[in-house]
Amino acid sequence: MTSPRSAAEYLAEIQSELGTVPLLSEGHSCRRCLGPTHLGYRYCTSCHAVYGQAPDSLRGCCVPMTTALDPSPWYGRLWKYKQTTTTDWIRLAALVSVYYRAQADRLEGLLGGSPTGITIVPSKRGFTFEEQPLRRLLDRVASLRNGIEKLVEHTGMSVPRQKYLPEAFRVVGGVSGRRVLLIEDTWTTGSTAVSTAGALLAAGAESVVVLSLARKVNLDYWTDQHPFLTAMKQPWDPSVWPRDLEEGTAREPRLPTRSSLPAGSG
């Protein structure tokens, strides 16, 4: 009889595809989403727009497990997993399981304690909470599945890119005073995830941290010579905490004013 395979064994099948999240201390990552910035700037263009409209308490809330270059095999896997086989779901669940086990203490540091609510960014494609592929994927993560609940839903209102629009989401579970871990698959501009987090805060959540499987990096926008892309190619290690300048502290300096950044900078 074949022994059940471990999460680490499933993760090993895709680990070579995973992009590393560069350390903040390396100086070329956005302090908000941990994606690439124009050299010399603290924030990417998207985060400057989205977080400029969001509450201060959301400004250190994003933790991506990996980076995903578009195009790449890893980004393709993330893009297609909703239509793929059970085995692919198990591999992604293995990533979440291994990463969460390695970083639980630091995530709790950002939240201000252990999570007292775990939920997912709602589907914009009409899936119910129970049908949502990400929800079904997380059912395979033993450390999370018993705590996942429906706390928020999409109202049908579109969230424009680089906009903060918490009214596009409706809180349907009790969140007052709770520390919420909000999980999503891919962070692109952050509009949807940050708006969802904002809706939870407005409903009384004590704190919200967004844990994403990957931060998308568009190769059409960034060149191979950017040091962020070089750092992405380092071997992926789940024990490395990319917010090394903060070590679990959610407080950060205020965003610069728009007048302090040249047009188009990030």
CATH topology: Rossmann fold
Radius of gyration: 18 Å
Topology order in helix (H) and strand (E) letters: HHEHHEHHEEEHEH
Sum up the overall morphology in one term: globular
State the distance separating the first and last CA atoms: 55 Å
How large is the count of helical segments?
Answer: 8
Q: State the strand order across the main sheet.
A: 1-6-5-2
- Overall structural class, as computed from helix and strand content, comes to alpha/beta
CATH class: Alpha Beta
Mean pLDDT: 89
Q: How many strands appear in the DSSP assignment?
A: 6
Poorly predicted ranges: 248-266
Report the CATH architecture: 3-Layer(aba) Sandwich
Percent of residues in β-strands: 15-25%
How many domains, in number, for the residues? Answer: 1
Q: Helicity level, as a percent range?
A: 25-40%
Largest sheet: 4 strands, parallel
Short description:
This protein is an alpha/beta fold and 266 residues long. The protein is built from eight helices and six strands; from the N terminus they run H-H-E-H-H-E-H-H-E-E-E-H-E-H. The chain has helices at 7-12, 45-50, 73-80, 86-111, 133-138, 142-145, 191-202, 227-232, and strands at residues 62-70, 117-120, 152-154, 169-171, 179-187, 207-218.
